[in-house]
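Protocol step 4 of 6.
Sequence for ROK family protein (Candidatus Scatomonas pullistercoris) entered exactly as in the expression construct, tag removed. Do not edit the line below.
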Amino acid sequence: MPQFILKTRQNMSAGRAPEISALPALFMRRKSIPAYSEKGLGPRLPDTKKAVLDLLEGEELSGFSGVGIAMPGIVDPEKKRVLGLYKKYEDSKEMDLEGWCREVFGLPAFLEMDSKLALAGELHMGCGRGYEDAVMMILGTGVGTAVSLGGKILRSRNYTAGALASHIIVNLRGAACTCPNRGCLEAEASGWALPGLLRRHPGFSESGISGEEKLDFRSLQKWVLRKDPVAEEVLLRCVEVWRAGILNLIHAYDPQLVILSGAVMNFQGLFQKLTEGIERCIWDCCGPVVIKEAEYPEDSVLFGLYYLVRNGGVI
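Step 5 output, structure tokens:
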């Protein structure tokens, strides 16, 4: 589900980042509702409205200055429009979310892509503090990416620069992606791609993981720990693809810092597998590159939204 945040005028006017110890106070009230992304965003708006109003517990909306919305696709933050999504809330491309927020809440809306917000959140409040040139790779259902250069989230004429690195082709004869191409990084190694990776393995029917009700990274970890050869080979394939993605980001954008985030990073030992020896594959002219796990993987998007609304739509 796209993430929403309302910012109070008091927080907006503070003019400085809150202390790290005070961060939980920013989000004392929160609520999650089912995504149902395949059904579109329009049918979810009534429940979204109810969830927000329930969170307010009767508090007047006049005390708030804006609504921040994180979308899982390319966004024009100036026109406040969704430009590109595949297989998720595709109806949002035709929606006026700014108009909806003004009609329902009487507040302006500020939109941005979720991966860009996650990077902004980590740069301002997490593991990226003190860095200006950074890239982020988020491993989850899909693969999200974002880039910061000179302390600013990278934007291009169509707002895609740095945000579509998961659709760099890593296998010319690879699997069909959710986008119009084949062999994209995301199609070769991601949460949604994993069931296909497993089922296409010639030994799948004889593997213990074939009996799992749900083919996800949690079940993959279970069978990797049991030394199941199919599970181990599929994990190795994913690691190879993700390492290629990390190197592509480094060589494309020359960052000081690479941030790895997303639910898949909970996989036991994955950070070490992704980073061990990778410095030997980086061009020496790139200098040292630091690789870290996100400090706030669950909340970095919300922190990014905080800054988006506070700064009037700029991160």
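Step 6, annotate. Strands lie at 3-8, 64-71, 74-76, 81-84, 109-113, 134-139, 143-149, 152-153, 257-261, 290-293.
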